[in-house]
Amino acid sequence: MNYENLKIKKDNGIGWIVINRPDKLNALNIKTVEELKDAFTVFQTDADVKVVILTGSGEKAFVAGADIKELAGFDEQSGRDYVIKGQEVTQIIENFKKPVIAAVNGYALGGGTELALACHFRFASDNAMMGQPEVKLGLIPGFGGTQRLARLVGKGIAMELILTGRTINAEEAHRIGLVNKVVTQDELLAACEALANKIMVNGPAALAFSIEAINKGLDKTLDDGLLFEAELFGKVCATEDSKEGTLAFLEKRKANFTGK
Ligand code: CO8
Asked: Taking the alpha carbons of 48, 105, 94, 205 in that order, is the dihedral positive or negative?
């Protein structure tokens, strides 16, 4: 896989996707959005990849937003088309069947916060700055920020952050639940790797069904969500991994999951 704006690596079950435009603080231009779609699509079916870690190149930025140079030229049709392309990538990430961890290593603004919001976990370095500053550009979030931020941190805080365009530091992002954990920049990738290793020993189908149940359940009533959980529980019981996992417990040994 050769990309212009991404660096890709596979290492011990982890698929690394590094957005690599450090001179532009890893801003998402159309090419990068297209490459992200391709990289996630490839990793989805790559059996060597159990967990994905998404981060930005350099020590300054995760992603400083959509590429403002490109945004400046959009009209109603091209703006809508661009946002739909970006939203498609965030949907692929959110519904990814393997856990996706965002290693937020600096500025994550606008589309950067939105990209991180689509991931299943966000670990941030203590120099991270996050926010939705689009209104300052006369724009609104377009890669899912108006929808996912409110779902994650609540409507009141999302309204405040989006309408002021205020940028928040890692400590505040942690306090409001926008990030799961804050560590020093030096510790960030190792902390994400440790999380990935803790997750990847579990049954792959169980992970995929858990992601689906949480994602889809949040948009349902409690009754419908519980029914959906029961359906997925039935499906996971039909996998070989569920037999192996329960048997391994009873035989007091480590489970050997095959993903079947
Ligand atoms: N787009 C394009 N280039 C960028 C971006 C960006 N978002 N952010 C930084 N850069 C570039 C700068 O232009 C500069 O390039 P050059 O050296 O060629 O002039 C280089 O990166 C370094 O940036 P700075 O010199 O500005 O670095 P500072 O350390 O002084 O400042 C900041 C860092 C505070 C992060 C500053 O760069 C900044 O404010 N960036 C813009 C942040 C922003 O507003 N992001 C939101 C963009 S809008 C968005 O994401 C909408 C998503 C949905 C889109 C729907 C659209 C239709």
From this structure: positive
Helical packing angle, 76-94 and 30-44, nearest 10°: 30
Give pLDDT, residue 20: 98
DSSP string, 43-96: HHT-TT-SEEEEEESSSSEEE--B-HHHHTT--HHHHHHHHHHHHHHHHHHHT-
CA separation, residue 102 to residues 33, 124, 231, 255 (Å): 16, 8, 29, 28
pLDDT at 2: 84
Quote the ligand 1 centre to 240 CA distance (angstroms): 48
Give me the average pLDDT of each 10-residue run along the chain (260 residues): 93 98 97 97 97 97 96 92 95 98 98 98 98 97 98 98 98 98 98 98 96 96 98 97 96 93
Q: Nearest-CA neighbor of 147 among 133, 159, 129?
A: 159
Q: Is 193 a catalytic residue?
A: no
The CATH number corresponding to 6-200 among 1.10.3720.10, 3.90.226.10, 3.40.50.300, 3.40.50.2300 equals: 3.90.226.10
Architecture of domain 204-250 in this structure: Orthogonal Bundle (1.10)
* Residues with a CB atom less than 6 Å from ligand 1: 24-25, 27, 64-69, 71, 74, 79, 82-83, 107, 109-111, 133-134, 137, 139, 141-143
- Whose C-alpha lies nearest to ligand 1, atom 57? 79
Name the residue at shortest CA distance from atom 37 of ligand 1. Answer: 64
Domain boundaries along the sequence of the chain: 6-200, 204-250
* pLDDT for the residue 1: 66
